[in-house]
Amino acid sequence: MLVGERRELLLARLAADGKVLAKDVAAELRVSEDSIRRDLRDLAAAGLCQRVYGGALPVSPAVADYASRTAIAVDGKDRVAAAAAALVRPGSTVILDGGTTTLAVANALPRDLRATVVTHSPTVAVALLDHHGIEVFLLGGRLFRHSAVTCGAAAAEAAQSISADVFLLGVTGVHPEAGLTTGDADEAAMKRTLARRAADTYVLASAEKLGAASRFTVLPFTDVAGVITDAGEQDPNVQKLANLGVVITGA
User: 120 exposed, middle or buried (CB, 10 Å; 0-12, 13-18, 19+)?
Assistant: First the structure.
């Protein structure tokens, strides 16, 4: 089998099975594990998979730049956003993460809602300018341009004074084995910091993020109250998450 054909097979397995184990594919094709690892390394460099110990997982489309992500799964994000916005009760304090899905949540909040929103996303804060009943607290810090959020020591320190009812968390991947992931270590740390400041954390995950993974773990499933997704009950990844005891809320 030619190298190109082998790599096409690896991508097909990722799409069909949600993962590739280098050892198993090497035995099946009767090639060395090093050859398969080299294939996976090259595919990962091209942004076509996420390498993990022993193999690879599907890469999340949410690792694209911010402007590009605004055009990905718009309808799905809007459905997730509507379900998430319903969790924001009058008089409550909510932490809104950054990203395009949480921006959709901000736009979905009722114009007459009276609540407090804390965010480290300038774009989310601007989206709430016309919500005159919502008091907005914007956490400062180093701007991470990929997700248009503030991160780093200053942002984490500012978060320590927060006490919120709910945190609406954005991630780039929700995988039954890899867990909740994102593509930047500092951003993952900031998400963990914000999660510790809220009574409940809900994950916002439009269907294209299910079964995908990025480099850095954010939180274990045991630390979140549930996952809000537009994927149906018959989606294999939804079923796998449910089997792990993850609470799935349909959008």
Answer: buried
CA distances for 134 relative to 57, 72, 222, angstroms? 40, 28, 31
Q: Report the relative pairing of strands 198-204 and 226-229 from DSSP bridges.
A: parallel
Report how far residue 8's alpha carbon sits from residue 25's, in angstroms, rounded to the nearest whole number: 13
- Strand, helix or coil for residue 120: coil
- Among 48-52, 63-67, 93-97, 156-160, which is the least confidently predicted range? 63-67
Tell me how crowded residue 86 is: count the other CB atoms within 10 A of its CB.
14
The pairing of beta strand 248-250 with beta strand 226-229? parallel
Strands (E) across 2-105 are located at 20-21, 50-52, 55-57, 93-96
pLDDT range class, residue 251, cuts 50, 70, 90: low
The 173-175 sheet, strands edge to edge: 173-175, 179-182, 216-219
Are the C-beta atoms of 191 and 97 separated by less than 8 Å? yes
- Is the pTM above the cut of 0.85? no
> Positive or negative CA dihedral for 123, 184, 52, 177?
negative
Q: Pairing between strand 115-119 and 93-96?
A: parallel
pLDDT of residue 146: 81
**Bigger pLDDT: 5 or 170?**
170
**Taking residues 134-147, what's their average pLDDT?**
92
